[in-house]
Amino acid sequence: MNEYVYINEVGPRDGLQNQKTILDIDSRTELIHQLIKAGIPGIEIGSFVSPKAVPAMAGTDEIVKSLENIKNCDLSVLIPNMKGYELACDAGAKIISVVPSATETMNQKNINMSLEETIKNSCKILQAAKADNLCTRAYVSVAWECPYEGLVDSNQVLEIAYKLIDSGADEIILADTIGAANPAGVSKLVKQCVDQFGADQLSAHFHDTRAMALSNVCAALYEGIRKFDACIAGLGGCPFAPGAAGNLATEDICNMLEQMGYQTNIDLNKLNSIVDFCAEKLDANVGGRMTPWLRKTN
Ligand code: COA
Ligand code: ZN
User: pLDDT tens, 18-61?
Assistant: First the structure.
């Protein structure tokens, strides 16, 4: 049996939160169902954030409720603050992700809190979630570079990750929010985190702004990481992080991993149809690097 790599799809959240076209709830739900049918094991299905700040995520509560019977996929939601946590619980969310950033300014711009407040709040939410028997994920955003403060000290990331794990995070996701990391920097930080926390508790999230996302995945793979976020059709970008371009495309990482001999259990042809679905719904030319190749071979 080939070694398994877990792909967590973030298209319905990271992918859709910053598109020109806002998808309605039925289309967002349809996208999630199609991703589940393609064999994706985990999906971030939306966020409980202010609809004024991110209109595209309004109605995530309805989506969570409509998917309550899904058993074959880990469905998570992103939470910025305690209010978001309460709303997610009311809707019946079972896996929550907190999203602190590693720098002062990024937290201010993203969720209007200082670094210290953000960490305190994230830890409080994690503790509440554990008391409520929920599964917990914790991003460390801008883990390599911040659009406002530049390069990030890896010790700062480790310190934040330690506090989040100590408060009940089941998983830490090292996030290259603006796509500024390179494979050498990825190896360095991931190695430090693996030494400290073990690979099982870690995951990585890359954007492809400077065409290094797949190389960064390889760097993390070689340090032992076996969980990655990815985004169908390479959609995405953070509205509060200037310069953030699309995420690493799910079809690109799945194809690379399969060709390298890893197993994802995800159906590439179905991913290709979902790329077409996104292109039609968003009225945009979307897709990862391998989309034209997949179209030619089918
Ligand atoms: N969900 C929905 N509404 C929320 C909310 C949440 N999690 N948190 C706060 N609000 C509402 C408040 O009820 C209040 O509403 P009102 O104006 O109708 O009274 C309003 O938002 C302001 O509340 P406040 O606590 O002062 O929040 P803020 O203005 O400091 O904004 C966030 C903080 C986190 C809500 C906002 O910055 C946000 O949603 N950011 C989005 C972050 C994001 O999605 N980033 C991309 C992914 S990392
Ligand atoms: Zn992202």
Answer: 999 999 999 999 999 999 999 999 999 999 999 999 999 999 99
CA of 49 to the centre of ligand 1 (A): 5
Catalytic sites, residue numbers: 238
Q: Which CATH architecture has domain 6-297?
A: Alpha-Beta Barrel (3.20)
List, for residues 81-92, the tens digit of each pLDDT value.
Answer: 999 999 999 999
| CB 84 near ligand 1, within 6 Å | yes
Identify which of 180, 225, 213, 219 has the alpha carbon closest to the alpha carbon of residue 288: 213
Residue of the CA atom closest to atom 32 of ligand 1 = 111
Distance from the CA of 17 to the center of ligand 1, in angstroms?
A: 14
pLDDT grade, residue 285 (50/70/90)?
A: confident
Q: Is the minimum distance from the CB of 53 to ligand 1 under 6 angstroms?
A: yes
The single residue listed with the structure tokens 């190389």 is 215
CA distances from 276 to 34, 51, 272 (A): 12, 27, 7
